[in-house]
Amino acid sequence: MKHLLPLVTALCLAAAQHAAAQESPVVVELFTSQGCSSCPPADAILEELAEREDVIALALHVDYWDYIGWEDPFGDPAHAERQRTYAHQAGRKSVYTPEMIVQGQTDIVGAKPMKLSKAIADHSQRPAPAALQIARDGDTLRIEAQARGALTGPVQVHMLRYTPTRTTAIERGENRGKTLTYANIVEGWQVLGQWDGQAPLSMTADVTGDKPLVVILQGAEAGPILAAQRLR
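User: That's the sequence. What structure does it adopt?
Assistant: Structure tokens below.
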């Protein structure tokens, strides 16, 4: 609980100072696992972030701690691979939990609310390199984007869905005996295509169900996130 008071103070201040950032929210990815005893404080931070309109908070549960004794039901090897790609881009040979990546660029180890708040504020102040709009009509999602200047390299168009909240009673592993709540649990992450940023982007994707969805424009190979939008 000691993490929550500074978190609330820091993130409320940041939200007040950067309300205009909703045009393109800042993406915060948390790599976490139910089998990691260090992760619950970071999970609680993400739960607070999930309430903010100027932030897209995403929990990517990894599977590499499952061998300890508890298989994370939300774990996905694709999430671990995405984390390894970030590590490779940063010149690191290993991955760890909890880890937060802000806007595809800033790495934060563990649960550090003040450092996280500063990273979000810093990225909020930077103009988005691309304007992104998404709209849903039934089972069709329309995606449109336009670069606001020359882009360096190809851009990938990502789409994902998430479950807003789930609570799990953990029976084994490092967190055994705890009942933990998780927010914005990512599933079905996919790359829809690639965009060169020269001509305006216009594309559609098939979507079903009523879970929230997110579209992210990101430099190839886990590069910087250029823009993101969400439909709840």
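Residues 35 and 65 are 6 Å apart (CA to CA).
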